From TrEMBL:
It comes from the Bacteria. Gene3D superfamilies: NAD(P)-binding Rossmann-like Domain (3.40.50.720). InterPro entries: NAD(P)-bd_dom, NAD(P)-bd_dom_sf. This is Nucleoside-diphosphate sugar epimerase. Residues 11-158 form the NAD(P)-binding domain.
């Protein structure tokens, strides 16, 4: 990726999304960031353009300074917020795939999506199965490059932590000294580490059409 890159991001009001947006706006190589969200972000910046819609739809005739070539999606919900497994799937799969499809139509070539560790279409967990289905459907869209970030449980302030994250974080405080090798992927990871890793990846040459980045690789990228 070169200088003067234009990026569109969906989900910048969330924990990882907000950190990602701030990281991108600090990067002088980024010419423009278009934020797609349901509510206004309390942030002013000469290179930030906000598209605010109730259903996260894109404007029919968007006004853009530069055509975005990079898309970032950091959307996700919890079963408690969604209210049902069906509603969770509507957001974590249907909405994310719909936005990715629209990004491709607007000219985005490389897409970065925050998923989660353990995402698998055949997982026993409904949450992990939804993430796996989302990844499979986005992969089928055929972007020039697609990167799925698969962090372990997220550490950091958030209005609501997923119950499985709360439990896992408590356990990890006790067993962290024992975590070695690939087990480190299950350690809690700070949202700003995920965000910085996304920023780094955007400007790295990537030959693979589809890649998956776990927590261990994210920490290595930002070290």
């Amino acid at each position: 990726m070169t200088m003067n890159t234009s990026i569109v991001i969906a989900g910048a009001t969330g924990l990882v999304g907000r950190e990602t947006l701030e990281s991108l706006l600090r990067d002088v190589r980024v010419a423009q960031v278009i934020s797609l969200s349901r509510r206004k972000i309390e942030m002013e910046h000469s290179r930030l353009q906000q598209w605010i819609t109730a259903d996260l739809s894109m404007p029919e005739s968007p006004q853009m300074n530069v055509q975005p070539s990079v898309g970032i999606i950091t959307l996700g919900t919890t079963l408690k917020k969604a209210g049902s497994k069906e509603n969770l799937r509507a957001i974590d799969v249907d909405l994310v795939v719909n936005i990715a499809t629209k990004m491709k139509k607007m000219g985005v070539e490389r897409l970065y999506v925050v998923s989660c560790l353990g995402a698998n279409t055949k997982a026993m967990s409904h949450y992990l199965r939804c993430k796996g289905d989302m990844e499979a459907q986005i992969e089928a869209l055929g972007f020039t490059g697609t990167t799925f970030l698969q962090p372990g449980p997220l550490a950091g302030d958030r209005d609501e932590k997923r119950s499985d994250e709360k439990l896992l974080q408590g356990v990890m405080k006790l067993v962290n000294p024992l975590m070695v090798g690939k087990l480190k992927n299950y350690m809690p990871i700070e949202a700003n580490v995920v965000a910085t890793a996304i920023n780094k990846l955007v400007f790295m040459s990537e030959e693979s059409r589809v890649s998956r980045i776990t927590s261990q690789k994210m920490r290595w990228l930002v070290a």
